[in-house]
Amino acid sequence: MQGFEKYKKMYFMPPVDCYDWVKKDAIEKAPIWCSVDLRDGNQALIEPMNLEEKVKFYQMLVDIGFKHIEVGFPAASETEYQFLRTIIERNMIPEDVTVQVLTQAREHIIKRTFEAIDGAPNVIVHVYNSTSVAQREQVFKKSKEEIKQIAVDGAKLVYDLAKNEKGNISFEYSPESFTGTEMDYALEVCNAVLDVWQPTKDRKAIINLPSTVEHSMPHVFACQVEYFNKNLKYRDNVLLSLHPHNDRGCGISDAELGLLAGADRIEGTLFGNGERTGNVDIVTLGMNMYSLGVDPQLDFHNMKEIRSTYEELTNMEVPMRQPYAGDLVFTAFSGSHQDAISKGMACHSTGNDPYWTVPYLPIDPKDLGRTYDSDVIRINSQSGKGGVSYVLKHAYGISLPDKMKEEFGYRVKDVSDKEHSELEAERIYDIFKSTYRDVDCVFCIPECHFKQNDGIEASVSISYKNETKAVTAKGNGRLDAVSNALKQNFNITYELSEYAEHALSRGSSSKAMAYVGITVNDKLIWGVGMDEDIIKASINALTAAINRADLIQA
Ligand SMILES: CC(=O)SCCNC(=O)CCNC(=O)[C@H](O)C(C)(C)COP(=O)(O)OP(=O)(O)OC[C@H]1O[C@@H](n2cnc3c(N)ncnc32)[C@H](O)[C@@H]1OP(=O)(O)O
Ligand SMILES: CC(C)C(=O)C(=O)O
Ligand SMILES: [Mg+2]
Predict the structure, then answer these.
(1) pLDDT at 378 over 70
(2) Complex ipTM above 0.95?
(3) pLDDT (tens digit, 9 = 90+) per residue, 37-65?
(4) Residues 376 and 229 in one domain
């Protein structure tokens, strides 16, 4: 593609090797999560949320379990300011929740921010300024020392103003555009800020490393984080926080590798809303941990409701393939996947293995409020016998005999292929009934009686071409006797080769399903019967099979 010469690497590796994170293979505990939905997410919306919308979103974040919530940029607008005042005045900040506010390192903005937080019980005042080469040279037109001074002045001002507040105030600093900043310089600025704040065990400071614009592969970010983890001053009294964006589509990997590299805290949003390609998606991050057996300390079991509230308030859409939340993320249309899932679910239902290991389903859809019936196996022309028989079993309690599954699978596939559409369970059931049960009959058996007479003797009434005849025949079972009566009456040849039956409980009536396979010229032809009486069901299945085989002239 023409034009690539215009670009170059915009990031900086740390001055020393920082590759200890590579040796770890798992995140062992949940980080401190900070939702920035109401600030970074909100500032990126076409239409930022109004006050009541923010209140509703905030309550959802509290319910999910966030303990740090960046509630806005109070100096940005009257709505932002009033929103914070509202949740303070309505007593909506639980004791264990700390609200966070963002401010530029500018005096009037910081002062306005402090007016907004008055009366809040626990607050993080988050101050930022850009440190990258591009911003220093093009936006601020200042030297490294001057940029560091902006950070230090901002840190001093928030520190001084906090002394007048009754609430519990802590501080966060972000070297904004960190990923375009030389690492030793970014560290120097952060350490200078920490020197102002003098964090202690009881009043930890937060240093937040944003990939304001994601410029590199995730391993580079991990090395940068490790460099900070090893070289920040007051490290024991500092929470090392990450704020990944997603410009290269690696926000999740940045966060996960960054946690391996020593970070304690993650800032992100639900479903990855945020500037440009978004912030890191905390739903995915949390559920990734969950799927590896680590409690994320956030509750997404109500995913459908969370998603619809999010969509309603932001006007954004969660795509069908969005991890854990999209409509199709637990769905298999393809035959081999469906086959493995239905076998895996059958294994799981034995309860022999306490762990979830079902193929193709990284987590149990039920954990997120999804259902196996409508979410997991859906049928189209890519589907196979496993999926089709799974749907019949789960929606209608019909257990097809193994030898029948393939034929019916192809029949359903063919319908879907010709119609170019997905087939719902109801449609599959209709195809099943019209193919094997509700067959056009050239004859039928209105009555049948049996007695024991050296085996079984059947007296069968056969209606054919407006005539009803009584025929008697023997067999080694009732169905065999009826079959012999039909062979004798119509002078036809076939082998009664397959038989299966099972009870079918639906609603108040309990019915039986019978499946009969007859072999004609080496071809197996199936018929199905359903009745409260298992004998009637079997006879209906046999007549359906014979009628389908076209052995008798109409
Ligand atoms: C990466 C991020 O997401 S950062 C957060 C970004 N979010 C937002 O900007 C949303 C809310 N922002 C706003 O509503 C407005 O920008 C306000 C109210 C904060 C400030 O408004 P204004 O002062 O009118 O405009 P603006 O933001 O363009 O100010 C730019 C000036 O601030 C300076 N500045 C920008 N950021 C900072 C900062 N973090 N610290 C110190 N100075 C800064 C710029 O250098 C520029 O200076 P100049 O006036 O000397 O040229
Ligand atoms: C304010 C900072 C943390 C930010 O949103 C960013 O750099 O992306
Ligand atoms: Mg951001």
Answers:
(1) yes
(2) yes
(3) 999 999 999 999 999 999 999 999 999 99
(4) no
Q: Whose CA is closest to atom 51 on ligand 1?
A: 140
Token pair belonging to 258: 């960054």
Ligand 2 interacting residues, C-beta cut-off 6 A: 40, 102, 128, 174, 176, 208, 210, 212, 243, 245
Q: Based on the domain organization, do 37 and 81 belong to the same domain? A: yes
Computed over every residue of the chain, the mean pLDDT equals: 96
Instruction: Report the domain count for the chain.
Output: 3
Phi, psi torsion values for 126, nearest 5 degrees: -105, 110
Does residue 339 share a domain with residue 270? no
Residue ending a domain, choose from 406, 434, 462: 434
In whole angstroms, give the CA distance from residue 319 to residue 314.
14
Given phi > 0 = left and psi -120 to 50 = alpha, else beta, which region is 351?
A: left
Domain shared by 92 and 75, yes or no? yes
Residue 104 C-alpha to ligand 1 middle, in angstroms? 6
Kindly give the distance from the C-alpha atom of residue 78 to the centroid of ligand 3, in angstroms, as a whole number: 21
Terminal alpha carbon distance of the chain: 69
Report the CATH number that the domain containing residue 11 is assigned in CATH.
Answer: 3.20.20.70
pTM: 0.92
Residue 369: give the domain boundaries: 335-434
**From CA 529, how far away is CA 512, in angstroms rounded?**
8
List pLDDT tens digits, range 457-495: 999 999 999 999 999 999 999 999 999 999 999 999 999
